[in-house]
Automatic annotation (TrEMBL):
Protein name (Swiss-Prot/TrEMBL): Arc/MetJ-type ribon-helix-helix transcriptional regulator
Pfam family, one: RHH_8
Superkingdom classification of source: Bacteria
InterPro entries: Arc_rbn_hlx_hlx (IPR013321), RHH_8 (IPR041088), Ribbon_hlx_hlx (IPR010985)
Organism: Bradyrhizobium huanghuaihaiense
Gene Ontology biological process terms from the UniProt entry: regulation of DNA-templated transcription
Length: 139
């Protein structure tokens, strides 16, 4: 019975892959910390370092988030959301710190008709066609 189970909607990843370049000595220091058991792997070290820096500057981040009127976290824009905005004659200003997702069933035409601007600090998930349609409105 379990072999017949289907995932109705693929789960979006909760992380985004980034690439960094480190000098050999810095990389060696990271590997030494991992080898000595302070961190489980390089990724654990890098995530911890980033979190420590964010915590160090938490007040500046909080003030900037408020000043720029950013939605914090995960923000999903469904086809229904955009159709409601179109019916109301409204244009959306998407300002997100985190992950903004525009649903897979949103057409490029609907996106252009209802989204005035897109500013995402983090990641934007949308179809390539929707991203292309909004390219001139994305900063």
């Amino acid at each position: 019975m379990a072999g017949n189970a289907h995932e109705l909607r693929p789960k979006a990843p909760d992380t985004e892959k980034i690439t960094i370049n480190l000098g050999y000595v810095d990389l060696g220091h990271v590997d030494l910390m991992v080898q000595e058991g302070f961190y489980s792997n390089r990724t654990d070290f890098i995530r911890t370092a980033i979190r420590n820096q964010l915590e160090r500057h938490v007040e500046v981040v909080r003030q900037s988030t408020a000043r720029k009127n950013l939605d914090l976290g995960l923000r999903n824009y469904t086809r229904e959301d955009l159709e409601a905005a179109r019916r109301a004659g409204e244009m959306l200003q998407i300002n997100v710190l985190g992950l903004a997702t525009i649903a897979q069933d949103v057409t490029p035409e609907l996106a252009r008709a209802t989204i005035a601007s897109v500013s995402v600090l983090g990641a934007l998930h949308a179809t390539p066609a929707v991203k292309a349609a909004l390219a001139d409105r994305t900063r």
